Amino acid sequence: MWIPVASLLLIVQAVLASSPFIIQLDGSTTFENFLNQAIASVLSTKPDNNNTIEIGDFKAFVADFDEGLLGKLHADPIIKNIFPDVQINVFDSIGPHLRKRSTLEPYTEPNFVKRNNDITTQQDAPRHLARLSQREGIFNETGSLEYNYDGDGSGVTAYVLDTGVAIDNPDFGGRASYGANFNTQEGEGDVNGHGTNVAGIIGSKTYGVAKNVKIVDVKVLGDQPSSPLSGILKGLEWANNDRKKKGIKAVANLSLNSLKNDAFNQAADAAFKDGLVVLTAAGNSAKNTELYSPSSADSPIVVGALDDQTDTIAIYSNWGPRVDIFASGADVKSLSNKYPNGYSEYYGTSQATPVVAGQAAILLQQGTSVGDIKSELIKLSTKNAISQETYDNNSNYTQTVNRVVYNGIENSPDKISNPSHLKQDQSLRKYLE
């Protein structure tokens, strides 16, 4: 079996570090069939409920084995591939320069106005919500902003695979719940804060796009925001199985990444094809998303960060042809894990992704099929809102789309007459990872 050089290097690295591996089976092979094969007898670890991962046609299990078995395992036709169980990292969470918290300035209780045409207006709305509901930029606006919407995500569930969620925050209105915890170092809850911020952008009352979506905490990371890949895949498997068991419409938000990893990509693709709308952050390294996973996978919706102060690509955002759409991802306010009456602020594609996840939940509520979600988001998006200066001054963006997420609240042309001509804010380089 031919093995890519990158995979070989990762395998060698894992062997030297005595790390476990993820053994992927051929899609037509069951775990029971594998156990009946002679190759299974050479492994000290056998597939069981604790170490198997099955997401659609992606089947794998986690095992430790001696270096000398690599060749024999790769030669077996029922084994599709072998991957090291690498560490996955969350974006935007380490270091005081990446987050600020406020207890002295609690958030303003939102005010909602119902219109006669089934549109609701949130007055004094956060910037990321206001930007979602208008085609023109808000970079010149200095007064209060409005978020107009005609869906709230009712009947849809959002699985948040992250550092945990402070589900008791009153802004969730009792719609958030614990789902599963695959972090072996911590119990339920969110010590880090990243997951609560992300969940709040998806579906909280004040900061959320989809204000009646159900939030389910699938904890795969902790205060030290990294996890073995197997833990992330187990979380994705759990979310997909929970969705199928309940027969519900659902999105999964993955504001995390690794260096490009075929196992992660295949699992994310399999989950989407099985009916779970998967959204992932492009990353904050100002590099091509093709270098990372799952943002280099085929099926997930990949979201880049827009700096809505200038309507440019945030200078830390990853780029490239894999990016599907941009959303506000600079200085985004949302819920705090520690202060129920305060807020947190983050910069990054981690915050842009839940904006689009919330809108995807609304589209599911309104009848868009899972298979059409990505194309519908692209169809609704504003096609020329990002400043052309962004593209003219950076040749890396040549194959990067000019699309800003829009919720379609008004039936208007998908190109605007007065797009931004501003340049990227170079001061945001400090948020590069």
From TrEMBL:
Residues 422-433 have a biased composition (Basic and acidic residues). Residues 1-17 form the signal peptide. The active site is at residues 162, 194, 350. GO terms for biological process: proteolysis. One of its GO terms (molecular function) is serine-type endopeptidase activity. InterPro entries: PCSK9_ProteinaseK-like (IPR034193), Peptidase_S8/S53_dom (IPR000209), Peptidase_S8/S53_dom_sf (IPR036852), Peptidase_S8_Asp-AS (IPR023827), Peptidase_S8_His-AS (IPR022398), Peptidase_S8_Ser-AS (IPR023828), Peptidase_S8_subtilisin-like (IPR050131), Peptidase_S8_subtilisin-rel (IPR015500). Pfam families: Peptidase_S8. Residues 410-433 are annotated as: Disordered. Residues 153-379 form the Peptidase S8/S53 domain. Keywords: Hydrolase, Protease, Serine protease, Signal. PROSITE patterns: SUBTILASE, SUBTILASE_ASP, SUBTILASE_HIS, SUBTILASE_SER. SUPFAM superfamilies: Subtilisin-like. Belongs to the peptidase S8 family. This is Secreted protein. It comes from Wickerhamomyces ciferrii (strain ATCC 14091 / BCRC 22168 / CBS 111 / JCM 3599 / NBRC 0793 / NRRL Y-1031 F-60-10).
